[in-house]
Specification:
Structural class: alpha+beta
Distance between the termini: 31 Å
Number of domains: 1
Strand order of the largest sheet: 2-1-3-4-5
Strand content: 35-45%
Radius of gyration: 14 Å
Largest sheet: 5 strands, antiparallel
Shape: globular
Helix content: 10-25%
Number of helices: 2
Length: 116
């Protein structure tokens, strides 16, 4: 597992990790997500396991990645949270040829290819 360092969460925030597939036409499809109170190591471990397992199961033809966001508890509880430029604090991508996961931990995070 990779160790990443981020600014500490505020008391009213949690981490949410989202496994996403970006199709050839730029459409984003959420595959899975998980919330993590304040445990960055658990979020990182979940992210790396999910992206490796999903790629192994479905092949490397998909463009899979993990976006890790800082989400307000009120938004989480109200199901109004989102993954976007404002909430994303880290992104993981897998190079299936080398089985290497690269983490981006500073912005900007590019969402131009995301079409909803």
């Amino acid at each position: 597992m990779t160790t990443i360092t981020l600014a500490p969460l505020d008391s009213d925030e949690l981490y949410v990790a989202v496994l996403t597939e970006i199709s050839a036409d730029g459409r984003r499809r959420e595959i899975d997500h998980e919330d993590f109170d304040a445990d960055l190591d658990a979020a990182t471990a979940w992210a790396e396991t999910q992206i490796r397992d999903y790629t192994a199961e479905h092949g490397s033809g998909g463009n899979y990645r993990i976006d890790l966001a800082r989400v307000d508890w009120a938004d989480w509880d109200g199901d109004t949270w989102s993954i976007d430029e404002d909430t994303t604090c880290a992104r993981a991508e897998l190079d299936p040829a080398t089985d290497t996961i690269t983490w981006q931990t500073t912005g900007p995070f590019d969402f131009t290819e995301y079409r909803r």
